[in-house]
Write the structure tokens for this entry.
Amino acid sequence: MGQLKKTISLYNVRFYSYHGYFPEEQVLGNEFLVDIEVEIYNNINDSEDLRQTLDYGILFSIAKREMSIPQKLLETVAFRIINSIKCLEADMSSIRVKVKKVALPITSDLGYAAVELTYTF
């Protein structure tokens, strides 16, 4: 029997959090957007069993929990999200997390700043 590669994704999940290197960022907070992509493998079938896939609600819960813990660097936030996802019981091949900071503490016309980490098994 063959294997099917699936990508379970969440895009632009919006959080108001208190991440930032500067103390005022951890007091005032900021808007962040989070993208998560998890590639999994499983047997090819047409099962409607949620255990045969990865529940994106769980991915959202992980992101929500980690986004609520202030960190100085976005790299740390993305790393913590990846580490939490790695603990799930799924046959994963990769995890990609992108954390975007919408309002930057610099004067510019940038849309956002972002950090993206990819973990491969």
